[in-house]
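Exercise 7.
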Amino acid sequence: MHIARPWRWIPTLYFSQGLPYVVVMTLAVVMYKNLGVSNTEIALYTSWLYLPWVIKPLWSPLVDLLGRKRRWIVALQFTLGAALAMVALALPAPKFLQLTLAVLWLMAFASATHDIAADGFYMLALPQRAQAAFVGVRSTFYRLSMIAGQGGLVVLAGWLQERSGTPAAAWAQVFWLLAGLFVLAGLYHAGVLPRPAADVAAPRSANFRADFVAVFLAFFRQPDIGRILAFLLLYRFAEAQLLKLVTPFMLDPRAAGGLGLRTQDVGVAYGTVGVAALTAGGLLGGWLVSRHGLQRLLWPLVLCMHLPNTVFVALALWQPESLALVSAAVALEQFGYGLGFTAYMVFMLMVAGGADGSAVHKTAHYALCTGFMALGMMLPGMGAGWLQERLGYTWFFVWTCVATLPSFAAAAWLRVEPGFGRRD
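Solution. The predicted structure, written as tokens, is:
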């Protein structure tokens, strides 16, 4: 394999994979806050939107057993473009909340299926050693989609609101832009994605149902499955709650305990500076794991993931007015998070492919890992808004620091294959 070839498609594929997730999980939070929806409703409804990522393992074997991953990717990118256009059409309607949530729900299903196909294609198109090496690259462009989404698009939405005075019209224009972008992505990937010989439907016997069930049984029969599931479910327990309230915290007035930032200020501090720091942390984490292996770096990365949560306690206590200071504090927290999340990504590759990369049904097994990851984000996040409205922002952020303890316990119980992730 020529090392230059993956650069033609990995950056654009993972940028395209990240954008719908950012739209559903983060951009929607800002949009609903601008449209006057309460914190409790925002956290509850947008947490439910995690469900497609939670249950995607239920249909992940279909992506393995029916057709090529390449075809799935292209078709789903056109589908996502259509869904984004439907959100734009629904926003000016009187019942915008119900209509947009319904479309976002459908978009989340399409995005979750796209994730299955893209991650499976990545493992088929690259040799096992290159997969760990390119973790940092795919993570970088996934994070760049977050800069574009919660940075550039939030700034654009804020600017359009100030010009038009109508949040719904401003956000509709943003979603039209996204719809056009996904049509272009589908056209581009139809031409540039490679055609690996391994990208074929998985072998099937005459009993399709038995094949379907066998995929799940192979995953749950792995040694140490209890340790694996505990880590997948608990590693982001605190982050799941923190994530839902960061944007409302920045937008809420200072009298309500927030920072009183404008929408475009949030796009700069959290969506641009913060995600740039997150990207840098992810790149550094991928490089470190490729040199030293996951087993050796697990605990340093766990600490990097969770200790910076104290930054939000400080912001809630002092409520600084300086955008530069807020941006620097967010950058510190996000850099640590980027480092720590690398451990999670590499661990999922280990579980899905095995230490030697020889496991069967990698696509479905990786989808199972990400499904448990999504469940670990969905359930804690659902009540985060309710909890914050009763505790206030300062004590809520103190709670998110305490909530890191289950993650430390899961990491202490974990077993990692010696040397996994290291490029020898």
